[in-house]
Amino acid sequence: MAVGPLVRPTSILPPHSLPALKPTTATPSPVLRTAVLCGAITGALCFVWVLFLYVSDNNPYGPKRTLADFFPPIAAIASQVLLRRYYQPEGPGLWKSIGTGMLTTLVVALIAAATLYLFARLTGPGLIEQHLAEARLLLENTKALYLKEANGLQQYEATLRNLARTPAGFAQDEFFKKLFFGVLISLPGGVFLRK
User: Fold this and answer.
1) Model pLDDT, residue 71
2) Helices 71-83 and 94-123 sit at what angle, rounded to 10 degrees?
């Protein structure tokens, strides 16, 4: 029985003696890159949520749409966490961290508003009229609660008057809601994740 030549294993170097790997190029503008990436993905998720509501025979303009208002704060925090990997070990600092969260929120709000505007234009006024009928019915059912408060009738009429009625109105509402909640969380998130 023939046995092949005896092969000796090469010695394995311990991890501390391996040469350090250095990146070949630094990432240009990690704040912008991280914010645009997180913002674009989250803005697309907001639109997917509207499409899901539409396909599942729910009102895409109704109260269930507001569940997507939680996406921008999550995206802002995620972008601030991801930014930290570019600035190890000292961290990105206060202004870069807050700026990343706010820029992420702005990108989310712009994409969500633009896609909702396009959705409203493509689906036509019939869906908007259906939403307005549902909103008026919902307000009529809660009118007694409004009237129990001081200035309740004025609040009821203002709510009825401020219902979005056009694609531009829905886009504006979407933009400001997404921007408000995202900025609200970006500030404390940036302070906490600055290091």
Assistant:
1) 95
2) 140
Give the CA dihedral 104, 180, 182, 168, nearest 10 degrees. Answer: -50
178 and 46 Cβ atoms separated by less than 8 Å: yes
CA distances from 112 to 3, 166, 178, 188 (A): 70, 16, 8, 23
pLDDT bin (cut points 50, 70, 90) of residue 143 is confident
CA distances from 178 to 15, 46, 50, 73, 195 (A): 47, 10, 14, 8, 26
Closest-CA residue to 176 (of 109, 107, 111): 109
pLDDT at residue number 24: 41
pLDDT, tens digit, 9 for 90 and up, residues 116-140: 999 999 999 999 999 999 988 988 8
User: How far is the C-alpha of 156 from the C-alpha of 116, rounded, in Å?
Assistant: 26
Reply yes or no: is the peptide bond before residue 188 cis, omega within 30 of 0: no
Q: What angle do CA 63, 66, 68 make, to 5 degrees?
A: 140
Helix (H) or strand (E) segment spanning residue 22 = none
**What pTM, to 2 d.p., does this model score?**
0.79
How many angstroms separate the CA atoms of 62 and 52, rounded?
Answer: 13
